[in-house]
Write a structure and sequence with these properties.
- The strands form 3 sheets. Strands 3-2-1-4-5-6 form a 6-stranded parallel beta sheet, with helices on both faces. It has a 4-stranded antiparallel beta sheet with strand order 7-10-8-9, sandwiched between helices. Strands 11-14-12-13 form a 4-stranded antiparallel beta sheet.
- The protein is an alpha/beta fold.
- Helix 3 runs parallel beside helix 12 and helix 8 packs across helix 15.
- 57% of the residues lie in helices and 11% in strands.
């Protein structure tokens, strides 16, 4: 029943693709591999489901056109500029070296020059789609190696487009040259190409921006226009003698300058993935398995070259350009596979009669092997680097000056906090720490984030705390706290282990996503565990409950109510209500105060304001704005006041001839006299943990005391007691 019925064929193929897709997810593999497997299983060599090759081929061509349309739409030349010469040099260098070495290997294996050339070109391209997905899943897309990798992958995409243009032009010239001169054909193609580019440039400047603005009022019309425009330019390009893929790419470029590129790209990504399914299914179904056995040896050689040779080429180029070997290694792993563009170029060459079916099968086989293996290489890149970091030292200059230029870490007398992770949560934490005059060093692998904080004068260090070598550059011996705001169990656990192995004696704070992670971190020695989601939810629930309980309903009267939370560093903290000049601001008054779950209605003039209080103020709208500004003013703190409030623990020795020996802590009025608390006593080999006021101190005791740094400083002046 399936045979001869296209609808049933497509249904069976999609069902098979879904099942294999689930398997691929379990194996953490890209769907591309599973789509190829679907084509192989549904093809004539296995289940024989596919009979409607023309329909599947049409859908495959639509998928390729849409892929290239989105590539053109999202072509980010700014990223190449921001990553500097490294993206261009690494991208072009990798293409040149990979193609030359690959071509030489192919010739040594006895391939013809034209087949060897196609194979060499196919080995140079890496999958931007797969790499972006993997880096996004690992949250490394904004890291230095992630940005460099995306930069040189864009260079590869441009090279692939140029290769497609060149091949289609060559194919057209060969077809037409049979009835005319080669010079005339070449001139005709050049003129057509210039005319097409000129027309698109005019459309980009004048009608397209206005047209997209008008159509943007309806998302459906905007997407319909984008698809129609891609298909129309693809058809026009093919009519002019180029390929439909080139036309679709130019259609994407023409819309890239509009303000709707992201909206169009986001809506078309799912359609692109669906249609590309049929390209890979068609490719898998047409794979001639009778030739695969003869290609096994060659496929192993070329797969090893791509998996090992391509990363080493990138690693060497980035090492020469002044990057650390870790950055070069992680960026190099992103080129350890061939891409969908490799298969598209090979399929085009097969259609033009330039390569044999055997070469097409070899390229497909290399693609399957390299994509499958490189996925795990990228997923476990940190473990791979730890294993290989020693031998990779030959790829790092003595002074990796490009990365060193990002750092502003200088020798510091003392550091309050080494803050790991400067994302949204980490940046907010840094903001408050700096406001409280704490000495902070920020660590992150996002150059843009480091740049923002560097301009504000904060010491920053580029690096990943999962890298053991980064600890050599940190003043751990002078740091009181190491705080990680990164929500990654693996990274936080690795950080704790590295700190322990480094002999770090300070405090550690980690960030957990849930209670299970928090318990794990506490078990492994974290002194403080942040739970931003739980804390934010708790605050939000408290604020909502508070508002529901006693915010009055609005009435038809020129008076407004507003809730304000008192920050810990606000100037009004500790002041009585009578000392806060709210009445002068147009009659603003404090209606109620919520503190620790209790509501104080109509507080009196002697009522003191505490940190974290929620005030409900009442007054005219203009006065409330001024009152909010007044209550939000922060206290100006100097370094001395910040250090006076710091709690410290110290050991204070009781002298052998001390007159205080034999007296209890209560008799000595120890806490009242010195302003510190005795929390333990070390007496020879004995440790007294539970200290009561009736505890006697003896000559030679070491008192473990806690208190403000100024009080401890004064007490040390009297040591031994």
């Amino acid at each position: 029943m399936v045979q001869g019925n296209t609808f049933f064929e497509i249904a069976a193929i999609l069902g098979l693709a879904t099942v294999l897709g689930v398997v691929g997810q379990k194996l953490r593999q890209p769907l591309l591999i599973m789509f190829l497997a679907t084509g192989i299983l549904a093809g004539p060599s296995c289940l024989g489901i596919i009979a409607s090759y023309h329909e599947i081929e049409l859908l495959a061509h639509m998928g390729i056109a849409l892929l290239l349309f989105i590539v053109g739409l999202k072509l980010d030349l700014h990223l190449i500029r921001t990553t500097g010469p490294v993206a261009l040099a690494t991208g072009l260098g990798q293409i040149v070296f990979t193609s030359l070495i690959g071509y030489a290997i192919a010739l040594l294996l006895g391939m013809s020059p034209l087949n060897a050339a196609y194979l060499a070109v196919a080995l140079t391209f890496s999958s931007t789609i797969i790499i972006v997905k993997l880096l996004s899943d690992k949250k490394e897309i904004d890291s230095l190696h992630g940005q460099i990798a995306i930069g040189f992958l864009i260079v590869q995409d441009i090279a692939a487009i140029l290769a497609l243009v060149g091949l289609t032009t060559l194919g057209s010239s060969m077809a037409v040259a049979e009835g005319g001169s080669a010079v005339g054909v070449a001139l005709s193609i050049v003129l057509k190409g210039v005319g097409l580019l000129g027309l698109i440039a005019l459309l980009m400047r004048y009608p397209l921006p206005a047209l997209t603005r008008r159509l943007a009022h309806s998302q459906e019309m905007l997407i319909l226009f984008a698809i129609s425009w891609a298909v129309f330019l693809g058809a026009a390009s093919e009519w002019l003698g180029f390929s439909k893929e080139v036309g679709a790419f130019l259609a994407g470029v023409s819309l890239a300058s509009t303000g709707y590129r992201d909206a169009i790209g986001a809506r078309l990504t799912s359609l692109r993935d669906f249609l590309l399914l049929f390209f890979f299914i068609d490719l898998g179904a047409r794979l001639d398995w009778s030739t695969v056995g003869a290609q096994m040896e060659a496929s192993v050689i070329f797969s090893l070259f791509v998996l090992i040779g391509n990363p080493l080429i990138v690693l060497a180029i980035m090492g020469v350009m002044g990057y650390r070997r870790r950055t070069g290694f992680l960026a190099g792993l992103t080129v350890a596979q061939i891409s969908e563009f490799s298969l598209i170029v090979a399929a085009l060459g097969l259609g033009l009669g330039h390569i044999t079916q055997e070469t097409m099968g070899l390229i497909t086989l290399v693609g399957v092997v390299t994509i499958f293996v490189s996925t795990y290489m990228i997923l476990y890149s940190s473990q791979l680097y730890t294993l290989l970091s020693g031998p990779l030292k030959i790829f790092e200059r003595r002074n990796p000056y490009r990365e060193a230029a990002i750092d502003t870490l200088k020798e510091a007398p003392a550091v309050d906090v080494i803050l790991v992770g400067l994302g949204n949560y980490g940046s907010a934490l840094a903001e408050y720490l700096l406001r409280w005059r704490r000495a902070v060093i920020g660590v992150d692998f996002d150059p843009a984030s480091l740049g923002r904080w560097r301009t504000r004068g904060m010491a920053v260090l580029y690096g990943d705390m999962g890298d053991p070598e980064i600890h050599e550059h940190l003043p751990l011996a002078k740091a009181r706290w190491v705080v990680s705001t990164v929500r990654s169990v693996e990274l936080n656990m690795a950080l704790v282990q590295h700190l322990k192995s480094s002999g770090y004696s300070g405090k550690v704070a980690l960030t957990a996503a849930d209670q299970e992670e928090a318990e794990l971190f506490e078990k492994n020695g974290a002194h403080v565990v942040f739970r931003p989601f739980a804390d934010a939810a708790e605050q939000a629930a408290a604020a909502l409950t508070h508002a529901m309980d006693f915010l009055p309903d609005n009435v038809d009267w020129p008076i407004t109510f507003r809730e304000i939370r008192v920050l810990p560093e606000a100037q009004v903290v500790g002041q009585a209500i009578r000392d806060i000049p709210l009445r002068s601001l147009g009659g603003v008054s404090i209606l109620a105060v919520s503190r620790a779950g209790r509501v104080y209605y109509d507080p009196g003039p002697e009522f003191q304001i505490y940190p974290g209080d929620r005030l409900v103020i009442m007054g005219p709208p203009e006065g409330l704005k001024e009152a909010e500004s007044l209550l939000g003013q922060l206290e100006s703190r100097d370094d001395a006041s910040a250090s006076d409030d710091r709690f410290e623990i110290a050991e204070i020795r009781v002298g052998d001839e001390s007159g205080r020996a034999g007296q209890t802590l209560a008799e000595l009025r120890f806490r009242q006299t010195y302003g510190v608390t005795v929390i333990g006593i070390r007496r020879g080999d004995e440790r007294i943990m539970a200290v009561t006021p009736a505890e006697k101190i003896l000559a030679g005791d070491c008192l473990i005391v806690i208190g403000g740094s100024s009080r401890l400083h004064a007490l040390r002046q009297d040591e031994p007691l």
